[in-house]
Amino acid sequence: MNTITLVVAVVLLCGVLLVRVNKQLGFPALISFVGIGAVYAAIYPAVFETITPTTAKDLSYLALAFILFEGGLHTSLRRVKHAFAPSISLATVGVVVSAAIMTALAYELLHVSLVAAALLGVAASSTDAASVFSVLGGTALRRRLVDVMELESGTNDPMAFFLTTILIQWQQLTGHSISQAIWYTLVLFLLQMGVGFFIGFLTGIFGSFINRSIDLDTGGMYPAFTLGLALLSFALAQSLYGSGFLAVYVTSVVLSNRRLEHRYSILRFHEGLAWTMHILMFVVLGLFLVPRDLAYLAGPGVLLAVGALFLARPAAVWVSTLWMGFTAKERAFMAWAGLRGAAPIVLILSAVEAQVTGYIVLIEVVFFVVIASTLVQGLTVNWVAEKLDLLEPTPSENILDLISITRENAVILPVEIGQTSRLVDKRMVEIKFPENTLCYGIVRGNQVVVPRGSTKLRSGDHLLILSDLRHIPSLKTLFQGEQVGPPAMLP
């Protein structure tokens, strides 16, 4: 137990520190996580007694579910309306087109079975929510492009997992006609997508209602509640033969687009959890790499990576976005910004667990595709957007980072105006607040009043005063005789 705890601690600490180092060097942090896994497997080969392909697959499924949940929390339905058609087309038609091209390339270059080649083709065709959300989240890109690619990366995983399931089961099914196989595929598709969406929607509505109704003692419990919702949505959908990945994504989208108590705490918690899952997924990829095999497969692996970046993805984008109002520059950028990450790893681990014929080389080859995408596209996506003139003016800091800075330097002081207070009927402009202090809200009954200089105070008003911690003594003197609460951090 102590050994496992120590290993997890070292891996997490190394991962976090490498994020900082790689940011300074301009190098994608996710690649360093692969190195951590590869080094650990070389030093401690007994790790494979604990982390079998089945265990790795189960961990990967859970990790990807949390990554998708975090992505959905940042998805706005108002923006989704404008991005829905191209996103769904990319997530379905685009995946099929890209998978077909990659299957043909893998079959010719690797000389594996057709099913194994198709599994690799599907895995290499799924853009990854983890990579896309992390890269595009800080990019001042045209809003429609960001929305399309973020929604695509959140919805193409269920499609890719469906195709992977079909391919694995087709290999295990014998004695069935083509018409029976087509009928089975159609029924399974409708079942997975229908159940996944239905469970995700209901769980989101249920979670939203409970979130607004319960009054927990501490804000730290709200992220624990949403964590439980994510697990509930995923597990229920999977148990009912639906797509757990679609369910967990829909749940988070529903939650984020309704009133969400302690939204900031929830977002920050799931952002940290998603990054932890990033580290986990790429460390797992590193564990299963064999340097000897990598050297042998370097040639075909590099060719497949080139095919994925410069042939399969561009073809998929151009076919699936026909007549949808995109310019040539926008389509070229979407073709380049289809980053791969955790999803291909999870998909290939499913094939490894099922011991599909030729599966041994798949995990090694997918390494080249993922690393090429993360390294080449991740390093250049912002540069390409700038060269194609697709950037828009935007604040230099992320809103959550700005809130975080504010929380570190400011507090809220609640003040209640009594019935006999000398401040009753006084205008806000007459109150001499200390410098860098602002009354930003007055709670009056069930209403919130945004105060102006002419706003008169009434008895029973609750003032929310934003100020620096250093000015609290001055404020308590100013409101002497009133009911002054303890200063609190921003929620």
Task: Explain what you see.
The chain has 491 residues and is mainly alpha-helical. The chain has 2 domains: 36-387, Na+/H+ antiporter like fold (Up-down Bundle); 410-489, Regulator of K+ conductance, C-terminal domain (Alpha-Beta Plaits). The protein is 69% helix and 5% strand. It has helices spanning 2-25, 29-43, 47-50, 53-72, 77-110, 114-125, 129-136, 143-172, 178-213, 221-239, 244-256, 263-287, 291-320, 328-336, 342-354, 360-387, 399-409, 472-478, and strands at 411-416, 438-444, 447-449, 462-467, 483-484, 488-489. Strands 1, 2, 3, 4, 5 and 6 form a 6-stranded antiparallel beta sheet that branches. Strand 2 (438-444) and strand 3 form a beta hairpin. It is elongated, with a radius of gyration of 26 Å. The relative contact order is 0.13. The model has no long low-confidence stretch (mean pLDDT 81).
Notable traits:
single chain, 491 residues, mainly alpha, Na+/H+ antiporter like fold, Alpha-Beta Plaits, 2 domains, six-stranded antiparallel sheet, transport
**Average pLDDT:** 81
Order of helices and strands: HHHHHHHHHHHHHHHHHEEEEHEE
What structural category characterises the helix and strand content? mainly alpha
pLDDT under 50 segments (min length 5)? none
Taking all Cα atoms into account, the compactness measure Rg is 26 Å
Q: Give the strand tally.
A: 6
Instruction: Please count the helical segments.
Output: 18
Percentage of β-strand residues: 5-15%
Sheet of most strands? 6 strands, antiparallel
Per CATH, the class of the largest domain reads: Mainly Alpha
Can you give the helix content as a percent range?
Answer: 55-70%
